[in-house]
């Protein structure tokens, strides 16, 4: 992406300029994952610290936005930074009486890939000129009364409950965006602003002319404008920026003793229909690692190759002791399509179940604590795992636990929406393992933090009982969820507080379910001290009626048979 930017700000007839603006045009990876950021803020006049509020807001946004995790989507990253700035302004105004009421409007624009995103609060504005069509993209947050049209309803620093407008749209080469304060749009009007932009091709000339015209038109406020022309956008999508990886061939199936680049294969650890996982040794360093690649059958399947690369991209950004860590490789050192991660000796919880291991209650609680911590780390990065189950939980020899397989993880921050999950052919549709999937997923609803919590709850339930709260669910089955079976029916030694917790974690109704991984963690750590209550049982009349209909039909048949026998006597 290439842009050209022009910017101008004038004091006008005011004593000082309370507007502030800024922009960042990064290069390399930041340009692809975060994009170009522009912002205009107008400090609320009539209060102390208006200029300070505007400057702090813009400077903080420009710095902190690029420090947010790459797994966050643009709106989430903007919201986190703006809300943090709002809290700082409120606390600063409380601490210093002379700054009481310090607040600012804000209009921010992000240009990334083939999309634009905006965040807006107050009466600064963003306009767009695209293919000859001039559009105001923001709405002024002012009172509707004629005598209060300049009084703000919303601004950063006015209220602890901040409400910011967010929007996005497709970006076109040749688009022009204008960000300005009310000292520009109020005296000029929309039609005159469009004329100036079209008369002056260069953004700097258009910005200078717009501010000059606003002051000549009688504008008595600070006048600030940013004009940005989108000279070019990448002809390739973000997935094509992984092109170096897509050009790599899928390796053939490997046997122990064979080598691939710098790695000697020691054993095959796991295989699915689409992927292979090997334990390997780096020849140059002697380090034991795990190498993940595709089955040779999918060598020509572009979607599967993209999925593996997206999984690597996401795994690199999950830096946590609760996950294997991706080992970076120099591009020139990799001649095949794969990635490597740290290897941890141990076995999955499913492997231990298959060997007939009995899990004591205290160990399952400890496992639950580690799973909740891992999910919490994942969710804070705006990532959903979507396939928590015993087979994806690796317990090392030191009893530490790591969550495996981000192959179907959903990441809001992936620039290409087609790469946010479901990378492998057999997992198209709603990914996950049916017996661990929340009821709402079978109704076509989107995955959420609560669906991960549900899967964690079923996992702990299964480790304790070897059963499922709603019975085992086969693939392609359309299950009916009645009341979950209390785990004490299978394990009477399960304490009451843990049973309540598990039933809350796997509640059919999300409104009764534990809401976050942090809530699950807190409940596990507290144990029977202030334990959670059991979910409310569904009233009989609201339960699925199929079973009762069958019972009623059976009784009707019996009564008819008895009546027939009586009449025949």
What would you say this structure looks like, in words?
With 569 residues, this protein is an alpha+beta fold. It folds into 3 domains: 2-235, PPM-type phosphatase domain (Phosphatase 2c, domain 1, 4-Layer Sandwich), CATH 3.60.40; 240-342, Phosphorylase Kinase, domain 1, CATH 3.30.200.20; 346-538, Transferase(Phosphotransferase) domain 1 (Transferase(Phosphotransferase), domain 1), CATH 1.10.510.10. Helices cover 32% and strands 20% of the residues. It contains 14 helices and 20 strands. It has a 5-stranded antiparallel beta sheet, with helices on one face. Strand 12 (263-271) and strand 13 form a beta hairpin. Helix 2 runs antiparallel to helix 3, helix 4 (182-199) packs across helix 5 and helix 9 packs antiparallel against helix 13 (517-526). It is globular. The N and C termini lie far apart (93 Å).
In short:
With 569 residues, this protein is of the alpha+beta class. The chain has helices spanning 29-33, 50-64, 74-95, 182-199, 203-216, 243-246, 302-316, 349-354, 361-380, 439-442, 449-465, 496-505, 517-526, 546-568; strands at residues 2-10, 19-24, 36-42, 106-112, 115-121, 125-130, 133-136, 165-170, 176-180, 223-232, 259-260, 263-271, 275-282, 288-294, 338-342, 346-348, 383-384, 393-396, 401-403, 410-411.
Fourth-level CATH superfamily of the largest domain: PPM-type phosphatase domain
Helix fraction by DSSP (H/I, runs of at least 4): 25-40%
Q: Give the spatial strand order of the biggest sheet.
A: 1-10-9-6-7
Number of domains: 3
Q: What is the radius of gyration computed over CA atoms, rounded to a whole number of angstroms?
A: 30 Å
- Cα-to-Cα separation, first versus last residue: 93 Å
Largest beta-sheet details: 5 strands, antiparallel
Total DSSP helices? 14
In the CATH hierarchy, the architecture of the largest domain is: 4-Layer Sandwich
What's the count of strands? 20
Strand content: 15-25%
Q: What's the rounded overall pLDDT mean?
A: 88
């Amino acid at each position: 992406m290439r842009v050209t930017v022009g910017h101008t700000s004038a004091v006008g007839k005011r004593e000082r300029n309370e507007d502030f603006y800024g922009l960042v045009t990064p290069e390399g990876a930041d340009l692809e994952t975060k994009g170009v950021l522009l912002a205009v803020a107008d400090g609320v006049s009539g209060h102390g610290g208006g200029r300070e509020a505007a400057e702090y807001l813009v400077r903080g946004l420009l710095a902190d936005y690029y420090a947010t995790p790459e797994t966050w989507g643009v709106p989430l990253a903007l919201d986190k930074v703006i809300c943090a700035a709002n809290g700082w302004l409120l606390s600063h105004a409380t601490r210093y009486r002379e700054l009481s009421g310090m607040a600012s409007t804000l209009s921010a624009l992000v240009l990334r890939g083939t999309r634009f995103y905006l965040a807006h609060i107050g009466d600064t504005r963003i306009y767009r000129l695209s293919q000859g069509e001039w559009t105001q993209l923001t709405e002024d947050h002012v009172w509707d009364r004629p005598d209060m049209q300049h009084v703000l309803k919303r601004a950063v620093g006015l209220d602890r409950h901040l409400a910011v407008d967010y929007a996005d749209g497709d970006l076109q080469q040749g688009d022009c965006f204008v960000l300005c304060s009310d000292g520009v749009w109020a005296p000029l009007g929309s039609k005159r602003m469009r004329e100036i932009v079209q008369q002056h091709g260069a953004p700097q000339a258009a910005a200078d002319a717009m501010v000059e015209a606003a002051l000549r038109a009688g504008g008595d406020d600070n006048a600030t404008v940013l004009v940005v022309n989108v000279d070019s956008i990448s002809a390739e999508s973000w997935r094509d920026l992984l092109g170096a990886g897509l050009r790599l061939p899928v390796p053939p199936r490997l046997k122990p003793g064979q080598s691939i680049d710098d790695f000697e294969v020691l054993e095959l650890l796991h295989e699915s229909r689409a992927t292979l996982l090997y334990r390997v040794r780096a020849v140059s360093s002697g380090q034991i690692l795990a190498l993940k690649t595709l089955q040779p059958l999918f060598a020509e399947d572009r979607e599967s190759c993209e999925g593996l690369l997206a999984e690597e991209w996401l795994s690199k950004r999950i830096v946590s002791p609760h996950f294997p860590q991706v080992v970076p490789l120099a591009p020139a050192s990799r001649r095949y399509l794969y990635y490597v991660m740290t290897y941890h000796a141990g076995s999955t919880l499913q492997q231990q179940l298959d060997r007939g291991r009995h899990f004591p209650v205290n160990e399952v609680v400890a496992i639950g604590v580690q799973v909740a911590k891992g999910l919490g780390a994942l969710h804070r990065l705006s990532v959903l795992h979507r396939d928590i189950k015993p087979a994806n939980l690796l317990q090392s020899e030191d009893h530490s636990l790591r969550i495996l397989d981000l192959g179907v993880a959903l990441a809001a921050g992936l620039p290409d929406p087609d790469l946010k999950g479901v990378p492998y052919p057999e997992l198209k549709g709603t990914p996950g393992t049916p017996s661990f999937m929340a009821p709402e997923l079978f109704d076509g609803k989107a995955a959420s933090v609560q669906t991960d919590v549900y899967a964690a709850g079923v996992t702990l339930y299964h480790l304790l009982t070897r059963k499922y709260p709603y019975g085992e669910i086969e693939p392609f089955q359309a299950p009916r969820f009645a009341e979950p079976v209390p785990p004490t029916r299978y394990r009477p030694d399960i304490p009451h507080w843990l049973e309540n917790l598990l039933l809350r974690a796997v509640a059919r109704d999300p409104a009764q379910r534990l809401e976050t991984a942090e809530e699950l963690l807190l409940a596990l750590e507290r144990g029977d001290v202030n334990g959670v209550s059991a979910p409310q049982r569904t009233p009989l009349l609201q339960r699925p009626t199929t079973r009762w209909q069958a019972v009623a039909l059976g009784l009707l048949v019996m009564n008819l048979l008895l009546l027939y026998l009586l009449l025949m006597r």
